[in-house]
Design a protein that fits this description.
- By secondary structure, this protein is an alpha/beta fold.
- It has three domains: about 250 residues, Rossmann fold (3-Layer(aba) Sandwich), CATH 3.40.50.300; about 80 residues; about 210 residues, P-loop containing nucleotide triphosphate hydrolases (Rossmann fold), CATH 3.40.50.
- Helix content is about 40%, strand content about 20%.
- The strands form four sheets. It has a six-stranded mixed beta sheet with strand order 5-6-7-3-8-9, sandwiched between helices.
- Strand 15, helix 16 and strand 16 form a beta-alpha-beta unit.
- Helix 5 crosses helix 6, helix 9 runs antiparallel to helix 10 and helix 13 crosses helix 14.
Length: about 575
């Protein structure tokens, strides 16, 4: 049995675990059949993971899947209830949490000390050993000198003397350069606390960096600085992220966290997408094999039943009774074949192989019949030039002040909305959706215009079961709703009867997406659509939008999405108003 990891414990959300110098030549970071359970919920179930000395590992998966828990397990902040966690790192580790917490009453300076707890501990021990050298005898001095040399080596290997300068530089790059060290850390926003933790983790020069969504809320300058620091990091990294550009640039191996387990793929983000496509193809093959075997077994039951029906149940004895014997023999053989085929059918039905999810597809609306859609899947050509929305002289004072002088949205348009936080991008979408009435100006809508809107914030969680919530939202009977929801593959059938309020944020986001996909619409509004969704699902969403004949208006900070939408028309929202530019 391996001993439990023993990092330096502190309440810090960035944990740096310096190991005894005797372990300098022994480096290991691995999980073996590790299980983590919170109350009655198993978050990680018998997972295995090995992190190499220079590994570049990215964790992906929906929110609530267990990515943050896996990072905390590696850091030593969480202990497995079963299995083993061995983390022996002479160069220490640093864990920057997505939502760092500090003891009540902590100042920013105290928070930084906690974030750098392992280096502060080494520095304090160097001072302590130095003080003891002056008061002990020659024999004890030899042992203390050896210990002092080991401590100084560890401290200087991470350039501990300049760590505070690096923290200051990091805070400057992350937009917190003027942060008062005496300020209560509780007065910082969640994003500011996360950036504080990130600056300390990068400044620590630990052997292993554990980063949870490090690119969140960073502007382009801060992103460039972060990526430069990570490119220069000589140790290992395990990063939980939804940022597909980051995945493409830095990840060598990608681990998907799903249903308590881990699946690992190599060759970076492209390898991950290829592995997922292969998995879907194999799932389709397994489903087709299951369908074929079920059909074959059911055909055997039917054929043998017909054969049995043609055999008289009783024949008059012929001579010595051989005819009756032969009839009974044939009867017995058919009955046996029927029984075995029925058993096979029962087993197959008891263990069905589900098909892979259907490709995401938006209902294009446009009030066309099924026959018209079948003949022309691109849409009603009569609406090609029809304006769906025309905005003139719009003024809003609710929320962020908004001004739109002149903007027309037509069927087939693709608009990408950009602008600084707080400028009014979400307010603009609310006006387009009809959720917010402007204070002035005119907004003309095409007759019967239907809008599908994926909001930035996850919808409130009702107590209704998932399938009932979906049925009410899209206007279907429960049975039809279950079939429609199941075809998307966004939620498992086991989750259909759970109350929506019991779902994770990621699961509720997928429910919102399913409702949007099932809502006939001519206009699609997306507010930060990549939030809380796994990268693979975002890729599928982009494909579905490309195939949609309706108009699409998107607000996003996702760099890969913006790059893929390079041909879209742009809407720039600033305090001075809304400026549009056609592609």
């Amino acid at each position: 049995m391996f001993p439990s990891p023993s990092p330096v414990h502190s309440p810090s959300p960035v944990r740096s675990a310096a190991r005894p110098q005797a372990a300098r030549s022994h480096r290991v970071c691995e999980l073996r059949s590790a299980t983590v359970r919170f109350a009655d919920r198993v978050v990680l179930d018998r997972v295995d993971l090995v992190v190499g000395p220079t590994a570049r590992i990215a964790l992906v998966g929906d929110n609530g899947a267990g990515k943050s828990t896996l990072l905390r397990l590696l850091s030593g902040a969480v202990r497995p209830v079963a299995g083993e966690a061995r983390v022996v790192l002479p160069g220490g580790l640093a864990h920057a949490a997505q939502d760092p917490r500090f003891p009540a009453g902590s100042t920013v300076a105290q928070a930084i000390d906690l974030l750098l707890a392992d280096l502060r501990a080494v520095e304090a021990e160097i001072q302590h050993v130095s003080d003891r050298l002056a008061v002990v005898g020659p024999d004890a001095q030899l042992a203390l000198l050896d210990r002092l040399g080991e401590l100084i080596d560890r401290f200087e290997a991470r350039d501990g003397h300049d760590v505070d300068l690096r923290v200051d530089a990091g805070l400057q790059q992350l937009g917190l350069g003027r942060l008062d060290r005496g300020r209560p850390v509780a007065s910082l926003s969640g994003g500011e606390r996360a950036r504080l933790a990130l600056a300390a983790a990068l400044a620590s020069r630990a052997e292993l960096l554990l980063l949870d969504e490090p690119t969140n809320d960073l502007d382009n300058q801060a992103l460039a600085w972060l990526e430069g620091r990570l490119a220069a990091h000589r140790g290992a990294m395990v990063v939980a992220t939804h940022d597909r550009t980051f995945l493409d640039r830095f990840a060598e191996d990608i681990i998907q966290v799903r249903s308590g387990g881990l699946s690992r793929s190599g060759n970076g983000y492209a390898g991950y997408l290829a592995a997922r496509a292969t998995e879907r193809r194999r799932q389709a093959e397994r489903h087709e094999e299951w369908r074929s075997e079920l059909a074959r077994s059911e055909a055997l039951v039917a054929a043998n039943a017909s054969r049995l029906a043609a055999i008289p149940r009783k024949l008059e004895l012929d001579g010595f009774g051989h005819g009756a014997f032969r009839a009974r023999s044939r009867d017995h053989g058919a009955m046996g074949r029927i029984r075995m085929a029925k058993e096979r059918v029962a087993r197959l039905r008891a263990e069905p192989v589900a098909p892979p999810p259907e490709p995401l597809r938006f209902d294009p609306g446009f009030a066309r019949t099924a026959e018209e859609r079948a003949e022309d899947p691109t849409g009603d050509t009569r609406l090609t030039e029809q304006a769906l929305l025309v905005l003139n002289g719009i003024r809003c004072t609710t929320g962020a002040a908004l001004r739109v002088d002149d903007w027309t949205i037509r069927r087939g348009d693709r608009w990408l909305v950009t602008g600084p936080n707080g400028a009014g991008k979400t307010t603009l979408l609310r006006v387009l959706a009809g959720d917010l009435a402007p204070d002035a100006g005119t907004l003309a809508r095409a007759e019967g215009l239907r809008v599908a809107w994926l909001r930035q914030d996850v919808a409130p969680a009702p107590s209704l079961p998932v399938v009932e919530c979906f049925a009410r939202a899209v206007g279907l009977h429960r049975e039809d709703a279950a079939a429609r929801l199941g075809a998307f593959g966004l939620l498992s059938e086991a989750e259909f009867d759970r109350a929506v309020r019991e779902l994770s944020v990621g699961q509720r986001r997928r429910l919102d997406l399913a409702i949007m996909l099932a809502t006939p619409s001519e206009l699609i509004l997306l507010d930060e659509p990549t939030n809380h969704l796994a990268p693979e699902l975002v890729e599928q969403l982009e494909d579905a939008l490309e195939a949609s004949p309706g108009a699409v208006v998107t607000v996003t900070h996702d760099r890969r999405w913006i790059g893929r939408a390079s041909g879209s028309s742009r809407v720039r929202v600033t305090s001075g108003g809304v400026a549009t530019s056609n592609r």
